[in-house]
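REVIEWER CHECKLIST
Item 1: Sequence provided? yes
Item 2: Single chain? yes
Item 3: Sequence as submitted:
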Amino acid sequence: MATVIKVAALSGSLQKTSSHSGLIRAAIELSKGAIEGIEIEFVDISELPMLNTDLENKGTYPPIVETFRHKILQADSVLFASPEYNYSLTGPLKNAIDWASRPPNVWAGKAAAIVSAGYDDFGGGRAQYHLRQIGVYLDLHFINKPEFFLNAFQPPRKFNRDGDLIDEEAKNKLKQVLLSLQEFTLRLQGKG
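Item 4: Structure as written out by the authors:
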């Protein structure tokens, strides 16, 4: 029986019809049929309070933060779907990253991948590179290839009105990212 890796998937967009949440939904769909040995859980960050160390109490955090941190800790790897805001990642995603980096840092030693969609062929690329910089401090290990930047507005249509990924070529590229993340996770764990 193949080793199953658990992936925590975070969307940096809180919008209900977000294409980034759509990328995660597509990844979950792929994990249930097209890829064996990978389980992806969408981890909602929308209810996390803004980071405030006054909310910490002797090494414990508010219950919603503890639950979030536990989901990251239990995951073998992380999939980030990050829009680009002002050449960087979004405030909600940075907030989630900061909560999970509070002692003890629950990101440390995990494999990770980033996917993004935007208005051009480098859709979300600056956010991805900024997230990679943050990952150095967090001891996150990002896959290098393949990179996934999706021009969401170039025909043919990539997403439907609900934010679901409908483009088969993009789904195949997403599948390649997931396979790379799976292989890299197993390698980091000494199982690949």
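Item 5: Key structural point noted by reviewer: The beta strands are 5-11, 38-42, 77-81, 111-118, 141-142, 148-151.
Item 6: Recommendation: ____
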